Each structure stands twice: as structure tokens, then as C-alpha cells.
Amino acid sequence: MFDVNKNTKMNTIESRPVSYSTTTITELMIPSYANFGGKIHGGLILSLMDKVAYACAAKHAGGYCVTVSMNGVDFLAPVEVGDLVSLIASVNYVGTSSMVIGIKVMSENVVTGEKTHTNSSYLTMVAKDENGKPRAVPKLVLESKMEIRRFLEAKKRRDFIKNFRKGLQENKVRDEDVLNCINEMTNERCLVDIKK
Fold it and tell me: Residue 11: what pLDDT?
């Protein structure tokens, strides 16, 4: 293995390939998981995503991890009662103590065999030590162009989100400016009815 940062051989304890921690969880969708519309509740899918992300991250880190954020949850298609749902998770990027876990959710109709990509998401997980402090995780060994692409995309997404959060903070409306901004709301779907 070759470390692009040091140009030296890496110790296998210091690094792990993506394949080492790639994790799949499959679960049957039973009637008690359904929402009022008869489809599988989105909250259940989110919970399963968090579970598979933890399993993947903990395996790569070799220990306890926590969820820091869930980015870009896209519900592409509904999941039906009776479907088998498989969640495939892999480490796409590592920082010092953080890992970006990419998740793809597939549902399968067991009668027809039809498979549908229903969800995708990215979760950021952080490895913790026995005192609850962030701890370093192994470097990620990238063994294919796809893994390199996912790493670079995750880094770009991370930088974009950091800038986006900064922009949100810079554009917050202060309480003292609220009444001065009412003119910006004239074409919005709201009514202003201040009693005080």
C-alpha cells in the first residue's frame, strides 16, 4: 500500500480498505412498519440508515462511533409492506476522527423480484474513545476509480456544507430587523398579523 501523503509504506493497522467495512443490512418490511398511507414509514428507513452507518463506521474505526449529521436524504420511491429492504453502507471519506458513510437503500418485491433504488444518503460519523473524546480513525485505502471518485465527492460535499452553514449564519435575520424585512414577504404565502 502506498500513502500519497508520505510516499512510504503504510502499516495495515493504520489503514483499512473500503471493502473491510462495507456493510449490508436486509430486513423484511412488516405491516407494523407502515404509515397511515400504507407505505413503510420514512422514520423507520432513517433509523435503519443510522444503524447500518454505525455498523460500517464502527467496523472501520475499530470502536464506538456517534452520528454527527445526516446529509442529503432523498426519498426516491416508496417502500411497500412485504418488501425486503437492503441498506448498503461504505466509508466514502475519512478525516482525522470523522467518516462519511454513503448509504444506498434498495427494496425488493419478493414476488416479482423487482428491485428499486428507494433512498440514498450520507451520514457523518465520529469515532470516540473510552472518555467520549474524538479519536483518530484508520486512513482509507482507495482501490478503484469509483472509491477515489466517492472520496473526492465527499470532500467537496463536506467543503460545500461548511460554506453553506457559514452562509446561513451570515444571513440570519436579527430580531431588530424583522419588521424592516416585511416588504420582502409581499409575494409569499403568509399573513402578518402582529398583535403586540
Answer: 35
From the options 3.40.50.11720, 1.10.10.10, 3.10.129.10, 3.40.50.620, give the CATH code of 12-144. Answer: 3.10.129.10
- What mean pLDDT comes out for the span 2-12? 41
- The number of angstroms, rounded, from the C-alpha of 181 to the middle of its chain's C-alpha atoms is 35
Contacts of 153 (CB under 8 A, 6+ apart): 92
pLDDT tens digit sequence for 32-44: 999 999 999 999 9
Q: What is the pLDDT of residue 42?
A: 95
**Beta strands at 139-141 and 15-17: parallel, antiparallel or unpaired:** parallel
Q: What are the start-end ranges of the E strands in the chain?
A: 15-17, 23-28, 65-75, 84-94, 98-108, 115-127, 139-141
Q: Which residues contact 133 (CB under 8 A, 6 or more apart)?
A: none
Grid cell for residue 110: 419478493
Evaluate whether 121 touches 103 at the Cβ level (below 8 Å). yes
